[in-house]
Specification:
mainly beta, elongated, 4-stranded antiparallel β-sheet
């Protein structure tokens, strides 16, 4: 039987309480009051005999099974779900121990010691309320240079310091009915697209810098940035390349779709851009001159993102999976499966081989791009979260929802 002292969150604003955790031979886990040893709660974990438990620096319980399975579980017996789905760590495990000063476990078995690095620590922080808005977050972008976001909410442009050190502020812009927003690639300007098809850029104080009239015949749906360029997608089924500063549209090599554009992504390195429409056409183009490099027909992607080095493109498919393509070879290299509800947004970690996704229930999953495994899961709750981005240093993950709350949700990460 394994024993461990754990901290269980208290109700409402009550402080956490210490409990003695005991693993039974049958796989039952019991929480005891350490003072009088009275049983407080009990649950069953795993599919075979539990052999040992270790508690990491975030309070997650890492339990081993005789069968070699290792999983991460919440310390609160009332909390549903798991912190890390069980995986096969060895043929057989006798015990697990934390590596002092490291986010890593040692599994102890007859075959010897095996060290396993732990998934990154997640800390869910208080949401950032956006000021004077109504309608939630309709469009959203993270600065490439700092943990700062720009969002459209209730027809207003809002700049937010993700760390919470400065309050959000509304940027007054002259462009009527804004529909899309992005930072320019250098992070110095904000680009805004409108229902009329116009595009304007502003400095961070709200002063207008550049304008491209009628870049689209209809609403601007998406804006992206990479290299020294901006890319916009419109309701007119067209994708347009633009010089960022001064703002100028290149109309001679417009990427033409024949259906409503569902997603757009721009390579951060400034080499490629990709767009997908609702008839299942995905087009990869060269950002320098708009030349088509390759396309995929018959697969509908409702979200696209490039890896930081521009070598991979990830897309959300209709069957709740995420597919990764090698940009150079155009081959599919990996499929990530695990969401039970449709993913609504995705983002690559800026410095580690990891990808984050969020689904319609607000559940965030962090995936390893090395082997496709789930590194961590952050349970969520409706409404759907429709935007997702990492800060440039990888320490913050920010999400927002198209709902009536007008807030952005933040998760602080440890190192993947």
């Amino acid at each position: 039987m394994g024993l461990a002292l754990v901290k269980v969150p208290g109700e409402a604003d009550a402080p956490a309480e210490t409990r003695l955790l005991a693993l039974g031979i049958s796989g039952d886990v019991t929480w005891f009051d350490p003072e009088d040893l009275s049983a407080m709660s009990s649950r069953t974990f795993g599919s075979s005999r539990l052999t040992s438990v270790a508690v990491d620096d975030t309070g997650v319980l890492w339990m081993s099974e005789r069968s070699g399975q290792l999983g991460g579980y919440w310390p609160d017996p009332a909390k549903e779900g798991v912190a890390q789905p069980p995986f096969q760590a060895a043929d057989e495990i006798d015990a697990v121990r934390m590596v002092p000063g490291k986010r890593a476990l040692l599994t102890i078995a007859g075959s010897g010691l095996v060290r396993f690095p732990l998934p990154p620590a997640f800390e869910t922080c208080a949401p950032l309320a956006l000021p004077s808005v109504d309608g939630g977050v309709q469009a959203f972008a993270m600065s490439p240079k700092a943990p700062v976001t720009v969002a459209l909410s209730g027809g207003k442009v809002v700049i937010t310091d993700v760390t919470g050190k400065a309050p959000p502020r509304v940027l007054t812009v002259a462009l009527a009915e804004p529909t899309a927003v992005s930072f320019t690639p250098d992070g110095q300007l904000i680009a805004v697209g409108s229902r009329s098809g116009h595009l304007q850029t502003y400095d961070l104080s709200g002063e207008p810098v550049g304008e491209a009239e009628r870049a689209h015949r209809g609403s601007v749906l998406f804006l992206g940035a990479g290299g020294k360029r901006l890319v916009s997608a419109g309701r007119d089924f067209q994708v347009v390349r633009l010089d960022a500063n001064p703002l100028e549209a290149h109309r001679d090599d417009v990427s033409q779709h024949h259906a409503y554009i569902a997603s757009l992504a721009v390579d951060p390195k400034g080499l490629h851009y990709a767009s997908a429409d609702q008839e299942g056409v995905l087009i990869m183009r060269r950002l320098e001159d708009g030349i088509i490099l390759w396309s995929k027909i018959g697969r509908f992607f409702r979200g696209l993102a490039f890896s930081p080095d521009g070598r991979q493109l990830a897309g959300i498919e209709h069957d709740n999976t995420v597919v990764l393509f090698d940009v150079g070879s155009r081959e599919e290299v990996r499929t990530l499966s695990g969401h039970t509800k449709p993913p609504s947004a995705l983002a690559f970690h800026p410095t580690a081989p990891a990808l984050a996704t969020v689904d319609s229930e607000g559940t965030i999953r962090l995936w390893s791009l090395t082997d496709g495994s789930q590194l961590a899961t952050v349970p969520g709750k409706p409404p759907s979260l429709d935007v997702l981005a990492f800060s440039p240093d990888g320490q913050w993950l920010v999400t927002g929802a198209v709902d009536s709350h007008g807030s952005m949700h933040r998760v602080r990460l440890g190192s993947p």
